Every structure is written in structure tokens, then in C-alpha cells.
């Protein structure tokens, strides 16, 4: 892997491909019944890529997020004329538990 969003381990996926896969999983949650509270569990790099791209950063910016093992992050989807519409990060990397 060369550290770029398009670099890849042989037979693996790039950071940009991982981001697309993670967003596809997250967007599938929008089709759940109203009031659902889905839980997405994955490894830290995949979750870091997801949070980075929600924040508008490149997929490889996940290296600047410290998501410890078993940490909790929370995202929400909102529609607003005043706030950013779409996915927003409410909490990232909480280990208070």
C-alpha cells in the first residue's frame, strides 16, 4: 500500500473502494423502519475511513483519527436547511465505557 486513497494491498481494496463500501452499508440503514437503531461493527480502519469521508476528508485521513479497539462512534442522518444535510458525526472514538 502506498499511503494514497487509491493504493492497495495485492488482492485487497483501496481506501476509496473501502469508503464506497462503508457508505453503501451505512446508506442501507436509511431503508430500515423509522425508529430503528442500527449497529455497525467493523475494524478500526474501515470505521475511520467512514468517519473521515462523512467529515468531508479524504479516505486516507482515517490515519489521523484515533479509534481505539471497542470504541464507540455515533452518526446520524439529518435533513436541514440550517445544518449540514446528510450523515453527521455525533461522537467518535468514545472509550468511556
Automatic annotation (TrEMBL):
The chain crosses the membrane at residues 40-59. Gene3D superfamilies: Phosphoglycerate mutase-like. InterPro entries: His_Pase_superF_clade-1, His_PPase_superfam. It comes from Candidatus Erwinia dacicola. CDD domains: HP_PGM_like. The keyword Membrane applies. Coiled coil: none annotated. This is Histidine phosphatase super family protein. The keyword Nuclease does not apply. It comes from the Bacteria. It holds the Pfam family His_Phos_1. Keywords: Membrane, Transmembrane, Transmembrane helix.
